[in-house]
Each structure stands twice: as C-alpha cells, then as structure tokens.
C-alpha cells in the first residue's frame, strides 16, 4: 500500500484534544466539558488552505481514492449530475491559472481537479432513449448539479487532508466560466463550479487554522435572530486581527474583508456576468 507521510499540521491534528481543536478554530472556548469526537472531526477542524506545494509526486492511486471519496458524497436523487476533469497538461494548467488571476499553485500542485456541474450526461441519456428533458431548463436542476459538484469537491478535499495532503479551492475559475468551458471542451449544460489544487504541503510555508465567526453569530434557534450580532462580530474581528498579525498580513478585520469582497461589482472580478455566461453554456434558468 502506498502511504503518504502526513504534513506537520495534519499529523499534529491527530493528537490535539477536542477542546483544544475547537478553541483553535474559534480562538475562544466553545463547549464546557467533554464533547463527542472522532478522527474525522480532527481532520475537519484542522483544515486550512494550502497554496505552497513541494515537487514530490503523489503516490500512485491517490487520484483513485480521492475520486472514490468524491463519489461517496450525497447526490440529489442519485442523479450524480457532476463530472471531474483532472488537468495534467502544464500548458492547460497555465491557461487556467491565468483565468484565475495568475494563481501559480494551479501549476505547481500535484493534482489539479475541476469539479463540473454536469447536466449533459442526462441530456445524452434522454436523447438515446428518445425522451424529453424539459426539467433540465429550470433553476432547480442547475442547483442540483452545482450542489452535487460542491459536495463531491468537499469530500475530495477532506479525503486529501486525511492523507496528510494540503489543498485549496479555486473559485476564481468562475471569473470566466465561458473561457474555462472552452479550454476544457465542456459540452452544453456543463460548467466548472470550482477547482481544487492538491499536493504535498511545503513545510517551509506553514499556514494555520483561520478563525471562524463564533458559533452564536451563525447558529439560530428555531428562528433567525440578530440579537447580540454586533458583539459576536466584534469578537470575530478581534480573532481575525490576531490571526493576520501572526501570518504577517495587514490589519484588516473580518467584517471589512467580507465587505471588500462584496461591496462593488469590480470586486466580483468578472463574475458579475456569470449568469449571462451560464445561459450561453446551456442553463436557461427558467
């Protein structure tokens, strides 16, 4: 059996106490007393984006097990409305990196996977059977395919991290969905939801667990309520500032980062025309 030597941070995750793992994720205590725990939770809570990879190749069979993990994700009505493109050609990777804002880790990762929302397979089945596919034209079918692809990608990411690998999502493929579809020769009714760069983390470029909004700012009991939200977000900002200082980043609080990402059309980096592009790719959004 080919084994992967876990990177430092993922190996350490196996020995961190549950309370410590929870506190590391939020930078504040979460639960008093014991909590249910498992090795899977250790991997999930240790997640961090990894963009620096070594040149060491991955063991043979890594792609096979990651695809099996991805296909083990839930699928709406078992339609399995997604496909995977594994990009190996360096020239093609470079073109995709350009679309994604010149993210070099697309080129240096051991694996670069593109998760595709894919209604074309059902379309082809229907054509062979002489049946109609009117339901494919509706937004619900688009969501089914997009969610299936996202669930599969998340399973693959978690599986990779459980093997000691590092990974980072590349949502910037949606900067130009039409260009990516052209580069990957996707059929009509298919588009790239997200890319996933996977490899052996470069230990010289160590990253850390990024704090999340404290649970009271996310969890609502029975009905949505905003009482106490400002105080909770103030804590999130304080934790984010401490994290960014440790990582050598500028002193920008989380609330400001969120606004920077969404406050203007320009901040969408081309994705403001995504629906228009998706319509040309075969998604009518009825």
Written overview of the protein:
- The chain has a single domain, classed as NADH Oxidase.
- The protein is 43% helix and 10% strand.
- It contains 12 helices and 4 strands.
- The protein has helices at residues 8-13, 18-26, 39-45, 62-71, 90-99, 105-108, 120-129, 139-162, 177-184, 229-246, 254-262, 274-280, and strands spanning 82-86, 111-118, 166-170, 190-199.
- Strands 1-2-4-3 form a 4-stranded antiparallel beta sheet, with helices on both faces.
- The radius of gyration is 20 Å and the shape is globular.
- The chain starts with 7 loop residues before the first helix and ends in a 6-residue tail after the last helix.
- The model has no long low-confidence stretch (mean pLDDT 94).
Task: For the structure shown, list the relevant keywords.
single chain, four-stranded antiparallel sheet, 12 helices, alpha+beta, 286 residues, NADH Oxidase
CATH-level-4 superfamily name: NADH Oxidase
Please indicate the count of domains.
1
With strands numbered from the N-terminus, the spatial order across the biggest sheet is 1-2-4-3
Strand content: 5-15%
Number of strands: 4
Poorly predicted tracts of residues: none
């Amino acid at each position: 059996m080919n084994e992967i030597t876990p990177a430092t941070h993922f190996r350490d995750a196996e020995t961190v106490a549950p309370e410590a793992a929870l506190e590391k994720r939020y930078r504040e205590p979460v639960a008093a007393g014991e909590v249910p725990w498992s090795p899977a939770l250790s991997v999930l809570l240790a997640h961090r984006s990894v963009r620096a990879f070594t040149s060491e190749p991955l063991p043979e069979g890594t792609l096979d097990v990651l695809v099996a993990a991805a296909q083990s994700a839930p699928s709406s009505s078992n339609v399995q409305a997604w496909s995977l493109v594994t990009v190996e050609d360096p020239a093609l990777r470079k073109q995709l990196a350009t679309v994604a804002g010149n993210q070099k880790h697309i080129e240096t990762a051991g694996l670069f996977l593109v998760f595709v929302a894919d209604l074309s397979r059902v379309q082809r089945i229907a054509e062979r059977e002489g049946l109609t596919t009117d339901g494919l034209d509706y937004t619900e079918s688009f969501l089914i395919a997009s969610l299936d692809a996202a669930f599969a990608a998340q399973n693959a990411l978690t599986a990779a991290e459980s093997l000691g690998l590092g990974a980072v999502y590349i949502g910037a493929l949606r900067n130009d969905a039409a260009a990516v579809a052209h580069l990957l020769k996707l059929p009509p009714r298919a588009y790239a939801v997200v890319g996933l760069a996977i490899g052996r983390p470069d230990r010289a470029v160590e990253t850390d667990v990024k704090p999340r909004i404290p649970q009271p700012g996310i969890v609502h009991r029975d009905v949505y309520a905003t009482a106490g939200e400002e105080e909770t977000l103030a804590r999130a900002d304080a934790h984010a500032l401490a994290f960014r200082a440790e990582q050598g980043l500028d002193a920008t609080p989380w609330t400001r980062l969120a606004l920077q990402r969404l406050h203007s059309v320009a901040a969408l980096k081309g994705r403001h025309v995504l629906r228009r592009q998706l319509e040309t790719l075969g998604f009518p959004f009825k």
